[in-house]
Request: fold
Amino acid sequence: MPQRDFYIDRLRSVMTALVILHHTAITYGGSGGWFWREFETSGAPSSTLLTLFCATNQAYFMGFFFLLAGFFTPGSLERKGFALFLSDRLLRLGLPLLAFILILGPATAALVTYARGDGFWPTILSLYQHQRIINGPLWFAQALLIFSIGYCAWRAAFGNALTAPQRTPTRLPSSLSWLLGALGVAAVSMAVRQFIPVGENIFGIQLAYFPGYIFLFAAGIAAWRHDWLRQLTWKQARPWVINLAIAWPCLPVGILIARAVAGQGKSNFGGGFSWTAILYALWEPFVAWGMICIWLLLFRERMNQPSAFWDWLNRRAYAVYIIHPFFLVGIALLLHGWVAPALIKFVITGSLTILTCWLVSDPLVRMPGLRRIV
Reply:
C-alpha cells in the first residue's frame, strides 16, 4: 500500500495538470467545448496540433481517472461500510459539484461576459434566474458519485458481505481479453453515438464517452481485487504499446484524408456510421490501453520513492482540479491582448495556470472546514 500512495497519487497529480493543459489547448484552437476560446478550431497547423493533443488526452486521461478511482473504491467501501462510504462520497464529490454549479461555474462564465463588455453581475443574475446549470469539469465528480452509488447497489444486491476478505490475487487477463474489451468499448460507443454524438451533453455529461469510462472504472475495481497493478510488466504491456504506436497515427491521417475529401469541418467523427466515426470509436480504446500501461509502468518504476514535494502536490491536486477553470479563463483573458502564436500562448497560459492553481490551493487545503472536502 505505500507503493500505491507514492506512484498512484503522483499519477493523479500529473493527470490534473494535463486536464489544465487540455483546456488551455481548447482555448487556443484545439477541438472541444470550453468557457472561452481565443482561437476557433481551424485547419491551421497550430490548431491541428492542439486538436491532436486534445484528442489523445480525451482518449485516455479521464478514463484513467475513473480506473484509479475504481481501484480505491472497494477497499474504501469495505473499511467504511455503506453509510459512511456514501456520506463521504457526498461530502467529497457532491459538495464540490454543488459549489461549482452555484459559485465557480457562474463566476467563470461571468469573467468571459465581463471581458466582452456585457458585465459580470448581470451574467450571474441571468444564470440564476434562468436556472442554468454549469457543472464544467465537475461532471467527473457527478459521474463518479453515480458510479459509486451504482457500485454500492451492486455490492448490496450481488456482492459478498463487506466483512468478507475481498482481495484474491489472480493473473492479469490475457491480451485477447483486453482486445475484446477494446472492441466491445468501441462497439458500444458507436451504438451510443447514433443517438448522443460526441459534443452533446445530457445533464452536463457527454455520454458518448461513457462506455470507456464505465469499463475502466470496473477494471479499476477488478485491479484492486486481483492485485493487477502490481503484477503488470512491460512484457505484458508490450502488445498495447505496439498497438498505440500503430493506432495513434491513424487519426491524424484520417483527419487529413477527411479534410481533402470533404473539406475543413465537414466530416463527422462524433456520430453516425461514417468511416470517420468508426475510425474515432476504434482509435480511442487502442490508444487508451497503451497510454495507461505506459503511465502506470513508468511511474511505478521511477516515481515510487518518498518525496515531500510530491506529497505537497498530491494533497492539493483535487482542489486544483476544482478551481482551475476560473483561473485558466482569468489568465487567458488577461493575456488576450498579447499578440503571440497560439502554441506560445498555450505554453505560457497553461504553465501560469498550473502554478497559480497549486499556489491558491495551498491555503484551501489548510482551512478546517474545507480540508475534509478537498
